[in-house]
Design brief:
Blueprint lengths: L2 E5 L7 H12 L6 E5 L1 H10 L5 H8 L9 H7 L5 H12 L4 H6 L3 E8 L5 E6 L4 H10 L9 E3 L2 E5 L8 H6 L4 E5 L14 H7 L4 H8 L1 H17 L4 E3 L14 H27 L1
Helix pairs in contact: 1-2, 1-12, 3-12
């Protein structure tokens, strides 16, 4: 039996994820592997480094810092979330990401990015937690229009959510058969097709493979939600999700709002902790 933790993205909705993973870590729950998409990867990697409270701490401390996220950053660099600050200065100097603990923890950790040339998902296993891995997390979190493509090697990447928002099928394929999924939307949420697609066709016309994925993204996302729900009802996986819409802004700057959503995640785990432990031990 291989226990897996799957974390979708969702920008600041992932403060819910932060509350969930901190509470799971405090409860001593271990996984053989984890995989995250976008903010799910950026926050979820702290499970492998065992840094309880780090995600909440740095988001609250730097919430209003324009280096973290701002329209000024977007206009100046092409990145809504400051690449140098988020993936270099913050984890290396200001709130240090524990690369030693990350490397020593036997838990595997993956992130998902989208190849902008063919639209395919790329699943990258993070091994060091250092600069090269942080670039993959940056790629996984780089939203088209609001971020520049991230070049790694000879390829360029954008957000993993374009091609695989909830990578449960990938994890099952590589042998994880006891999975916990953290979602950032409530039960029965279904994604609607974006009304902005015509505008995206104009802006992203140089990236036809990405546009093709964006065109079917709502359908693909809802398909995987239906797959997850079916297996959840059958008891074949366990889902932790918010009990109601989180209603938090993509670039939320209010520390109290960040804490509010974080606490929803904490409460959901505490409420269901025994069920989680039972599921993982069966």
């Amino acid at each position: 039996m291989k226990k897996g933790l799957v974390m979708e993205g969702g920008a600041m909705r992932c403060m819910f994820t932060a509350g969930v993973i901190d509470t799971l870590m405090k409860a001593g729950i271990d996984f053989d592997g984890g995989i995250g998409v976008s903010a799910g990867a950026a926050f979820g990697c702290n499970y492998k480094s065992n840094q309880i409270g780090r995600v909440l701490r740095y988001n609250v401390k730097y919430a209003s810092d324009p280096r973290l996220s701002s329209w000024q950053s977007w206009l100046k660099t092409g990145d809504l979330y400051g690449a140098d600050f988020c993936y270099h200065e913050l984890p290396v100097k200001l709130d240090v990401f524990d690369t030693v603990a990350f490397q020593e923890n036997p838990m595997d950790f993956w992130c998902v990015a989208t190849d902008i040339n063919n639209g395919e998902s790329v699943y990258h296993k993070l091994t060091s937690g250092k600069e090269a891995d942080l670039e993959w997390i940056r790629a996984s979190s780089s939203i088209p229009v609001f971020s520049r493509p991230v070049e790694i090697g000879s390829r360029k990447y954008w957000d993993g959510g374009i091609s695989d928002s909830i990578p449960i099928k990938f994890f099952e394929k590589i042998g994880y058969d006891k999975n916990v999924i953290i979602l950032t939307q409530p039960l029965y949420y279904r994604k609607e097709a974006s009304k902005l697609y015509p505008a995206l066709e104009m802006i992203l016309h140089k990236y036809p493979a990405v546009l093709k994925k964006l065109r079917t993204r709502a359908h693909d996302y809802n398909d995987v939600l239906n797959y997850i729900r079916k297996k959840e009802v059958q008891g074949k996986l366990l889902v932790i999700r918010p009990p109601y819409p989180l209603e938090i802004g993509t670039m939320e700057k209010d520390p109290q709002e960040l804490k509010r959503v974080y606490q929803i995640g904490v409460k959901e785990v505490k409420k269901n902790l025994q069920a989680i432990k039972t599921y993982l031990s069966e």
